[in-house]
Amino acid sequence: MMAVAIKKVSSTANVAPHWHAHAKEIQKYGSVVEDLPHPLSVKVRAEMVALLNQLLADSITLRDMYKKHHWQVSGPTFYQLHLLFDKHFDEQVEMVDTIAERIQLLGGVTIAMGGDVAEVTRIQRPPRGREEVPVQISRLLEAHKLIIQSCLDIAEKADDAGDQGTNDLAVSDILRPNELQSWFIGQHLVEMPLILEK
Predict the structure, then answer these.
(1) Which of 69, 18, 53, 59 is nearest to 166 (CA)?
(2) pLDDT of 67-105, one tens digit each?
(3) Of the residues 16, 47, 57, 168, which has the maximum number of CB atoms within 10 A of its CB?
(4) pTM above the 0.85 mark?
(5) Measuring CA to CA, which residue among 151, 191, 178 is closest to residue 65?
(6) Residues 6+ apart with CB under 8 A from 28
(7) Residues 71, 132: Cα–Cα separation, whole Å
């Protein structure tokens, strides 16, 4: 039988987690890391980060509105919209993450916390209570319109600045899915009888 040596833990050893850490921020919001192995200038990266953070704040707000309406939808189209709103929420989660990663890649700091997002977003805050389906959808369509316009503006500025990565993100990853979601939910506001009378 092999003897196993057991090392006695010193009574002075601190095995408790060090969870009371406080320190200064290591990078301020609104700044970009200057020395990066990236061909874009600091000025261009800072401009793109500012534009993308606004898009991020608005996209986070839209994402959360989809979850709110998923929980609070009611009426004869409840089942279809309950599922559709949740599907769109999941897709918005991916878009939010894509925008945030681009900001970090450019050397910026992402907006992240709900309170900060609420201060920055341009999307009007819905009431806490439940609203009728046409109002829910109208709110979502207004938010999509704002985000789609932002994508067009960002894509143009990024193209002018030579930032093809941000241009591609704005058009391929954010603009097109938002257009598609807008179309899907907008069709629920079309008045169409279920049966055509002759």
Answers:
(1) 53
(2) 999 999 999 999 999 999 999 999 999 999 999 999 999
(3) 57
(4) yes
(5) 178
(6) 109
(7) 13
